[in-house]
Design a protein that fits this description.
The complex is a heterodimer of chains A (188) and B (191).
Chain A (H helix, E strand, L loop, with lengths): L2 H17 L12 H4 E5 L2 E4 L9 E6 L5 E10 L14 H5 L4 E6 L8 E6 L6 E3 L2 E4 L8 E7 L3 E8 L6 E9 L13
Antiparallel strand pairs in A: 1-2, 1-6, 2-5, 3-4, 3-6, 4-5, 7-8, 8-9, 9-10, 10-11
Chain B lengths: L3 E2 L3 H9 L13 H14 L3 E4 L6 H14 L16 E2 L5 H15 L22 E7 L3 E5 L5 E5 L8 H9 L3 E2 L6 E3 L4
Parallel strand pairs in B: 1-3
Antiparallel strand pairs in B: 2-4, 4-8, 5-6, 7-8
The chains are: A mainly beta (188), B alpha+beta (191).
């Protein structure tokens, strides 16, 4: 008795997919960990040791409003003179857990501020109500970008859906080594 | 001693005269003893503990705080309070030069500024009071670590220490409490 419905179900499923192909967006493999990093000024921190000079980086500057800037990798660096995240006191914490640091070239009017950098070719990003959005992973849902202050650092995040409401796709922490009043929402 | 105007000089001065500590021995009691006991338990169990900052310099925090506020025009140089042992002249005689001197310090210290950072560096904190420690704790697999009462618990390694509630519970038994927003930060009260 139990084999008949199973066979019928399998046949139906096969037949349906053949007759009506699924046209909904299919998620593509998007390696958030190796393609997304955070920026301070012109310094990119990312879990990727293989970025070549000249590689394209799309920078989302996290101001109000947010903005989109095209940048290119210049070189890898370990210098605190080039990256504030590598000055004494912060260096060890920020190098921990696999972060690599790169200098990037950005237009001269956009050299300062915090941001999130995405390496490589991307689908089109847009700015809506002051927030950058775009479907990075092709799942039909736009990614959004955010930053906030913790008690002694900054959190950067990419969300599938709106910040603090959607699903967290990527996050990183920048240790500042001084105390500030936090602005991040309290964790659960 | 004559006062020295704000500017790059104070970055160099702070880096030799107002450094943060990386020594557990510089913490205040009873947090110092509690932190030592917690660290010993972790190391006895096979974890590697890398100490970052322990006690932060109050003088350094003072220079951070007022340079940030003056450079951004949130406060005038004349608003800055004096601090014993830091003979700095914030007021250059005009706002533009006072802001410029403060800005040199903000840049030299690498302070985060708006829009990403809207909070001034704090004048007081658990670190400044010697009641907080930043440290990285690493191990492989499950750590069999003793709580303060001697009971052994198994704690799996998690790359996001903020989510490792089992580790937080062990720390709490030593009154070393995790702040869940900042990966390296533990303190006497979790803040």
């Amino acid at each position: 008795m139990s084999r008949i419905p199973l066979t019928f179900t399998l046949f139906t499923a096969t037949a349906c997919s053949a007759l009506t192909p699924d046209l909904s967006p299919q998620p593509q493999l998007f390696e958030f960990r190796s393609r997304v990093g955070w920026l301070e000024d012109t310094c990119l921190a990312i879990n990727n040791p293989h970025l070549a000079a000249g590689a394209n980086v799309t920078v989302v500057r996290l101001g109000t409003p947010q903005s989109i800037i095209a940048a290119k990798v210049l070189k890898r660096t370990t210098s605190g003179d080039e990256c504030k995240a590598l000055i004494e006191g912060r260096r060890d914490a920020n190098l921990r857990h696999g972060a690599f640091f790169y200098l990037v070239a950005v237009p001269s009017a956009h050299t300062s501020g915090m941001g999130i950098g995405i390496v490589g070719e991307l689908p089109a990003l847009s700015i809506d109500n002051g927030m950058v959005r775009g479907d990075l992973d092709g799942d039909g849902r736009d990614e959004f970008f955010s930053t906030c202050m913790t008690s002694e650092g900054l959190n950067f995040a990419v969300w599938s859906g709106e910040p603090y409401d959607g699903k967290l796709s990527w996050s990183a922490y920048y240790y500042l080594d001084y105390d500030v009043h936090p602005t991040c929402p309290e964790p659960d | 001693m004559p006062k020295k105007k704000s500017g790059k000089y104070w970055v160099t001065w702070a880096n030799s005269h107002a450094k943060n500590s990386k020594k557990v021995d510089d913490l205040a009691e009873p947090f110092k003893s509690n932190a030592k006991s917690f660290i010993k338990a972790l190391e006895d169990a096979g974890a590697t503990v890398t100490i970052g900052t322990t006690k932060r310099s109050k003088k350094r925090a003072y220079l951070f705080h007022w340079s940030w506020k003056i450079s951004l025009g949130i406060c005038k140089a004349s608003d800055a309070k004096a601090m014993a042992g830091v003979e700095i002249e914030w007021d250059h005689g005009n706002d533009a030069d006072s802001k410029k001197g403060a800005k040199e310090m903000v840049d030299g210290f690498g302070l985060a500024v708006p829009p990403a950072s809207t909070s001034a560096p704090s004048l007081n904190s658990n670190h400044i009071a010697g009641k907080a420690i930043d440290m990285d704790i690493e191990w492989s697999g499950n750590l069999k670590v003793k709580k303060k009462d001697g009971k052994e618990v198994s704690v799996p390694f998690m790359s996001n220490v903020n989510s490792n509630t089992k580790l937080h519970n062990v720390g709490e038994s030593y009154i070393v409490k995790k702040l869940k927003t900042d990966a390296p930060h533990w303190s006497h009260n979790g803040h």
